[in-house]
């Protein structure tokens, strides 16, 4: 069975306006055409679908059952079209740059630097996206992507960005208490808060099997931002990404405990289109990111 031909958008828009107003004259005024033009469009549409869509009621019209079914479909479709056009209009703003990356890195490293970025480029409007499914630049409205490996997508400029490490930290009060206690006795004076994945990660598992094994586990999290918050509240010592904790370390709210090893972490990459981007500010932001990582 062959699929029915879809009527033209012009006919469907005329129908949508007439159905919404219940009046051909008002629909014509909205679309800036004559009433006879709307009548002709409805007649043509009814011929194409093979069913009457309106019935006359006094000076207006009302939908038939077939018209009601078509109205719901057309309204959904028109809504999606308008949403898409609005999205395109926003994306074409020359000052807008979409940066996609892991939430913990955007939160810990990039967010504290946003004021510096905006001071450098006042016309910039960055969109920070944590959409982990965004794996293709351009195809998903992404200008710059930060990830733990190159995207290996054709036509991209991809460079090493940031080198992370895992550090054991405590807040200012707890770090002060532990400073006067031998490392072998730390577990008697503090609890351990950690990420669930830290027990099985290739880079951190040994630390938890050895130096951190004596500690009582206080709370286990599945989000590094929650772990950061807990460490700042003094709920225990924590093994955190240095980049996630960077602002708190710089402010003296967290301290790295020197008695525990610093472990090599993720090597982050940053990517953008290799050729001319849709806006020069994309190149500016990309270069700024790399310079700020030095």
UniProtKB/TrEMBL annotation:
Keywords per UniProt: DNA-binding, Transcription, Transcription regulation
Per its UniProt record, what SUPFAM superfamilies does this chain match? Answer: Periplasmic binding protein-like II (SSF53850), Winged helix' DNA-binding domain (SSF46785)
Q: Which GO terms describe its molecular function?
A: DNA-binding transcription factor activity; sequence-specific DNA binding
Residues annotated as domain HTH lysR-type: 7-64
Q: What are the GO BP annotations of this UniProt entry?
A: DNA-templated transcription
What InterPro entries would the database entry show?
LysR-type_TF_proteobact-type, LysR_HTH_N, LysR_subst-bd, WH-like_DNA-bd_sf, WH_DNA-bd_sf
Pfam families attached here?
Answer: HTH_1 (PF00126), LysR_substrate (PF03466)
Q: What is this protein called?
A: LysR family transcriptional regulator
Q: Which family is annotated? A: Belongs to the LysR transcriptional regulatory family.
Q: What domain of life? A: Bacteria
Under the heading PANTHER family, the entry gives:
HTH-TYPE TRANSCRIPTIONAL ACTIVATOR TTDR-RELATED, HTH-TYPE TRANSCRIPTIONAL REGULATOR
């Amino acid at each position: 069975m062959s699929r029915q031909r879809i009527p033209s958008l012009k006919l469907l828009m005329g129908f949508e306006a007439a159905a919404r107003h219940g009046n051909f004259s008002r629909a014509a005024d909205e679309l800036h055409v004559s009433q006879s033009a709307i009548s002709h469009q409805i007649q043509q549409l009814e011929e194409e679908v093979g069913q009457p869509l309106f019935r006359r009621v006094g000076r207006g019209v009302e939908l038939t059952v077939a018209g009601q079914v078509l109205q719901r479909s057309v309204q959904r479709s028109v809504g999606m079209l308008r949403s898409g056009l609005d999205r395109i209009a926003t994306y074409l703003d020359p000052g807008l740059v979409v940066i996609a990356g892991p939430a913990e890195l955007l939160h810990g490293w990039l967010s504290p630097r946003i004021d510096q970025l905006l001071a450098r480029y006042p016309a910039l409007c960055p969109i920070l996206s944590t959409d982990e499914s965004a794996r293709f630049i351009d195809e998903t409205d992404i200008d710059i992507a930060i990830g733990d490996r190159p995207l290996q997508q054709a036509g991209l400029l991809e460079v090493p960005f940031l080198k992370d490490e895992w550090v054991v930290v405590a807040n200012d009060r707890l770090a002060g208490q532990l400073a006067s206690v031998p490392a072998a006795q730390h577990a008697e004076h503090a609890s351990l808060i950690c990420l669930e994945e830290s027990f099985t990660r290739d880079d951190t598992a040994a630390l938890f099997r050895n130096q951190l094994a004596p500690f009582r586990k206080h709370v286990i999290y599945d989000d590094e931002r929650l772990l950061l918050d807990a460490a700042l509240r003094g709920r225990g010592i924590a093994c955190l990404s240095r980049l996630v904790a960077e602002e708190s370390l710089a402010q003296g709210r967290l301290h790295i405990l020197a008695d525990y090893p610093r472990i090599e972490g993720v090597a982050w990459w940053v990517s953008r289109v290799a050729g001319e981007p849709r806006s020069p500010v994309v190149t500016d932001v990309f270069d700024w990111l790399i310079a700020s990582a030095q």
